[in-house]
User: Fold AC transposase from Triticum urartu.
Amino acid sequence: MCVVAHYIDGNWNLQTHVLAFIELDPSHSGNVIADALYAVVTEWNIETKIMSITLDNASNNDGAVEALKAKFLFQRGKDFEGQYFHIRCCPHILNLVVQDGTTILDNLINSLRETVKYFKRSPSHLHAFVATCKSLGVKVGNHLHLDCKIRWSSTFKMISTARGYKEALTSHAGSNANYAWAPTNAEWDMYDLISPLLESLAEVTKAFSGSLYPTSNIFYPYIVGVKLAIEHAMASDSDHYKEMGEAMLEKFDKYWEEKNNAMVIATIFDPRYKMGYIEWSFGELYGEGSTMFRTEIKIMEKELAALYEKCVAQYKRAGNGEISSSSTNIPSIPVQAGYESFLLSRSTRISKSELRNYLEDEVAPRNKALDLLGWWKDNAPRYPIMDKIARRFLTIPATSVSLESIFSTTGRILDDYRSSLKPVMVEALVCGASYIKGAHVDLNLVQRDENEEDDVENIKLPKLPIVVEEIND
Assistant:
């Protein structure tokens, strides 16, 4: 089990460090995982600082989350905000969502899959296909790709590369009796129809896979985009595409129908979105002015107000604590009844005013290049209360990809010469590398080939002299 800590330091830099890389008992039950995680955070003395945990969607992880929430609630009481604790890994859910959709189209995709297998089996088949491309003037560039059925991204890669060879594959089938798997025109039309949706989902997955920038603020906008794209598919005239959309929406709602408002709040702390985007998106999802729309808006406003009141109260208590412990024998000053309540309410009004100022200030340009953490570093003096809240919510990772890179088979932590090291030494290597290299590099110790892709088998097209001449022309 790998435990990775994410936090924003005093200079508003996102930091990522491996805290533990340990061997678990074989049962891997929820309680075993919870006990191991709790032991790690207590060893590092950060149990009171934990905001959330991002995990994939295995049932034992769900059990671990419930056990951890009970532990933290017992230790931290009301200070523990359990409603924000469990973050589901977005790429994992997207994989499940799209996998259910592409399974519906499996029969349509099978012709393309068998096509790639046909060329994979024989170099002579590949040479003949390249000759066909030459005769038609089709540029031979991208390799053919054979997908892994349980990874939709590899299926998208297979479809997108094959579409460039549509004319050549159709012609090749007409002149080669042994090639009997050429996709039909209807199947090509379906590939063209679903490709934009799959491409947009691939972009979402790529955006969430970054470890050098915050991802919590983009989580909700991207998920809204996915939901709207799926609903668009369900409105299609194509029965196959509509069925695909219905299957995807069913899986989508299974995991995200009950949203974690931590990610919605993180979006509000992005000056390009603020509350205006939340109102617009709720209108798109629930219908502007509907009962659900008004209810959800009120919930968000209430949660924001509660966060500010809690933050102000914490700082007020901290200030009182410093005064009471500074000296002794100082005579107390009589205070009129109700004055303490007045001060607390005044502090709350100040924090609400700061919130209102932020929300009413002009939104930042929708520029993808915005350095969000740099923006907050520059504007922290304007929003001293929001600064503290933003730091917490923008730290949350939307994915466990950085953790999984530790286990990558193509970018391995350990090579074959170090595969017999004891677990404690492996942990020392992993954690040590994380701290030596710092937060702004890949967690892998062994660099992967830039041409390698997980779950995709490349079928390289031969570079025949006849093709080279065509390219040079």
